[in-house]
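User: I'm new to structure prediction. If I give you an amino acid sequence, what do you actually give back? Let's try with this one:
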Amino acid sequence: MSTQYEVVGVSSKGDELNEVAEAEGIRVVPIGMTRTISPIKDIRSVWQLYKLFRKEKPLIVHTHTPKAGIAGMMAAKFAGIKIRLHTVAGLPLMEAAGIKRKILNVVEKLTYRCATRVYPNSKGLYEFILKEKFTSETRLKVIADGSSNGIDISHFNPELVNTEAKSELRESLFIEDGAYVFVFVGRLVGDKGLNEMVSAFKELSKSNESARLLLVGGAENELDPLQPETLQEMEQNERIISVGFQNDVRPYFAISDALVFPTYREGFPNVVMQAGAMELPAIVTNINGCNEIIIEGENGTIIPTKDRDRLLKAMLTFANGSYDGRGAVCRKMIVDRYEQSVIWEALLKEYKQQQTSVS
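Assistant: Good question. You get back a string of structure tokens that encode the predicted 3D arrangement of the chain. For your 359 residues, that looks like this:
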């Protein structure tokens, strides 16, 4: 986009925003936004964004995430920005209930009403939005085959992690040769299916001493804490290895045999694409995004959400070698459908079309 437009990145203040500025070579502006429901802070965010948009007078405002979406789309509409685009990459409201669900429904509808175009990043999200009547079909579009950003297949390439590096990493984590390694990459929280996964692995490890569960990601105890028994098992089971958040997850994929991703909700999960590009088959849940990337029996298997027994059965199947030798197939399926440049070109084409429509 920087070859066609001046791009300005807006997000909450922090090291990550500065890293984006340096990595992408763009100007960034810090605007405070919270991930929780906080009316006073949210109104302040809308006001700050409104002032920014009035000053910058951007041609396009494109928002991502629910909070940036509501604040950014409202501010852009108030500021008179003609092209207001919002990408939907997962809906927290899918796991909400009661008054919280009603509030989030209203917020989502308001976001879409303020936007001129809404881009669900999966076909499943597209259908869900229509089913819930959040907006009309004329305002919705899925870019390319889905995903917000595609996958950089030159970066996520198993050939970039050599045998020596893999051996050193396995040794540092006390993973013996011949161990079958399941890897999970993501936030260690309840709605990612961690409780079911740890419970299933506890049972699996009783009969399979060579199995290992590698957890790559940080916890968010304030938002979605794990169950006490899950935390206890993670601490006491020596075959569960937790390495925390990692800037580069490729080495961890490279020493693993399969991805386990039993999440309750997603938009279009990067992790599943990354794992596939790194030649890993995957166990995923039957939700939008996941069930579009994984083709049953080819590059992985699809199980129901929150089903510990089905997850255990799938992990047993994988550990017994049923998906061995599928690496090349897994990578090809990602390369063919989700290579990053394809997504970028489709998004740029969409920008140009929107620009033409208002000129």
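You can read the tokens as a compact description of the fold. Here is one thing that stands out. The chain has a mean pLDDT of 93.
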